Amino acid sequence: MNPYQQGQSGYPQQPYLHNIGFSNTAPQSFGNPMPMAGFPTMGYPPPQPGYSAASGYPQSSQPYPQQNTGYPPSQGYPNSAQGYTQSSQGYSQTAQGYPPSAQGYPQSAQGYPQSAQGYPQAQTGYPQASPGYPETNKYQGYPPHNESHAQSQQTYSVSSNPVANTTKSKPTVVPVNPFDPREDAAVLRKAMKGFGTDEKAIIQVLTRRSNEQRLRIAFEFKTLYGKDLVSDLKSETSGKFEDLLVALMTPLPQFYAKELHDATAGIGTDEDVLIEVMCTMSNHEIHVIKQAYTAIYGTLLEDDLRGDTSGNFKRLMTSLCMGNRSEDFHVDQQKAREDARSLLQAGELRLGTDESVFNAVLCSRSFPQLAAIFQEYHFLTGHDIDDAIKAEFSGDLEKALRAIVKVVRNKPLFFAERLHKSMKGLGTNDRQLIRIMVTRCEVDLGDISNMFHSKYGETLQSWIEGDCSGHYKKCLLGLLGLY
User: Would you identify the family this protein belongs to, as annotated (predicted)?
Assistant: First the structure.
């Protein structure tokens, strides 16, 4: 289903789809990176105080600056101009069309004559859309697109890595700009029209667009040709290449929801998928995934997780599913010391293990706070928290707790290990490979690739080339920016 057709005939109302991804605090692929006519601009920050939503001009609640009282109030600027505020509100002094020397006009220039320097003749009464205000100032107070992208990436990284205040994640797929979805739709139509398929054209379009942009292309494709792009792609391709293209064309919340559903549906449970998704998502991402899950399957994610897991692992999944981790990134060293002592007393210093203490600490503390707790634990015991978890726990609960520790310390390394595991040995876990490549390419796949090379001494590219083939391999390399 195309996300922009919600509420139409045959499609249920799904309000969460107005947010194609997650939020400004999530990876760039989870928000709308560019302002597009008719669609929500999720990639821009909220309007700054003092600016009207329509024109970008200051509100009329503050009086005109006192230093301009030397000009007769009845001449030049009428009373309706009292909404003009000082440049400290967000207007750069050079962006107004007034030269710096305009701050002090001679007294003889009574009433702002039409010949006054820096004032266009058509602007004597502060008309709407005056030439003195360039159109580029429409979004004053908003960062440029590339800065918004960097801020989005950095904000998400802070929620997952305590050292992200000084580092920025490296995506391998970024929104293309300028972006013409109709032109891309025409390219895809031509690639699939008639006999044969131009797979190269399909790969080069879809691996060089963000998830949100791919959805725009699908929307325009149906508008122009009356056909569903995903259906056409499925009819023209097959195998793992088809699976990868369908994953690329799925909105990320829906994609995560489907992965979680398939992991719990049927006989048996794929706990690795539950751990990979639930232990790495931020609060807001978990809430949006839960919304998508209920909209698609009609059941609660929490209920399905509880129904397919058991014991302490079920309790851990339930806690993570609440999406209630602290997001206060100030580190309280005293509380970290207390939590480290609590973990020590609940594990190594007693017969048996009090799993509830580990559950409470690892599911509720912020990632920077957890990093401080792990340091205090090492200081108290002389060994790493990871070693203690290996000694005290087993099975899926051990995997999940260790996954949280790894994500806190180095999320790209966690995914690098997952990628290595998916291609190691005989056969390939293609579903895991596709999931990580598709969901991380707009977030930190560049960092993951670097960590892969650092840990295993071989490049991620060489492993993909050795384990995959055909257009499937080329499409994966395209997501790495190498095709």
Answer: Belongs to the annexin family.
